[in-house]
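User: My collaborator sent over this chain with a note saying "see what the structure looks like." That's all I know about it. Can you take a look?
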Amino acid sequence: MTEAKEAILLVGGKGTRLRPLTVHTPKPMVPAAGVPFLMHQLARARAAGVEHIVLATSYLAEVFEPYFGDGSSLGLHIEYVTEREPLGTGGAIRNVASRLSSGPDEPVLIFNGDILTGLDIRALVTSHATSGADVSLHLTRVEDPRAFGLVPTDSTGRVTAFLEKPQTPEEIVTDQINAGAYIFRRSVIDTIPAGRPVSVERETFPGLLASGAHLQGMVDSTYWLDLGTPQAFVRGSADLVLGRAPSPAVPGRCGDRLVLPTASVAADAKLTGGTVICEDALIGEAARIDGSAVLAGAVVEPGAVITDSLVGAGARIGSRTVLVGAVIGDGAVVGADNELRDGVRVWCGAVLPDASVRFSSDE
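Assistant: Without extra context I'll predict from the sequence alone. Here is the result:
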């Protein structure tokens, strides 16, 4: 079978590195290019032939179903399974197994809710089928693999080891990393222990390898980005708008800017670099916004300059204020004539008076 009809999407993480974006919103529901990030993943899975998706939820689980419903509007059948206690990646996969209808040898697509990728899903499924693997992994190459788990393969693409976050040059035997998308033979999912936390990366995969199972790696070096940090999330949103990261769910034509229909932008405001202005946001005269996301209902006052930043829902940025690489939480107010740079995060609902901050960093 060369098409995966079913998928499990792991969306249970707390997104602590993304705070304050994730204080009120689970990470997969934070808007990227004008729609919840999860929408891009669901649309790409649907385009690859997936029909049934089970969302493995935990943190703020109640947010997902009211938005996506049964999935019929997307041409999908979506189900939701909520973990009472976080079970890790492997535990989450095992926890939703009863919702799958695939036969023992059929392929099930599994992917993480925080990876933006151009992966050719059909090619991964085909590779899985032709190699006869028990599990196939999407691998990507990175310049500095120290923050990731390395996955060396032999000349046929068969996985030979799993090496967690190497530090010394001798340990860095490959630049191939686990890119967070897998095809499991359905029967393999049932071998994961039930009812306890399991890491698929640290326990399941090494255990399968040790038992002689066939794990196949497919290197696909198209667009790939881990959206774990605010800076990465902002970049991912901009890349979706620019068309660098492919998605059928971008609500408009790709280009330098994306302005949703109910937003209001002054005629002389300048929007560049994949900037997105979400519903009901208001952009004042002579504002300059580059490579940034302004979420629903936010207000950017005249003359503000915003670069590579995210302005949360309902937040307000005062006149002539400069933001560079900043994250402003939902409902926060940054008064006029402030300057925030280099990873500064303003918490949800916080108020910074006019001209109170000229420069700060997250050190």
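A starting point for your reply to your collaborator: The first strand starts at residue 6 and ends at 11.
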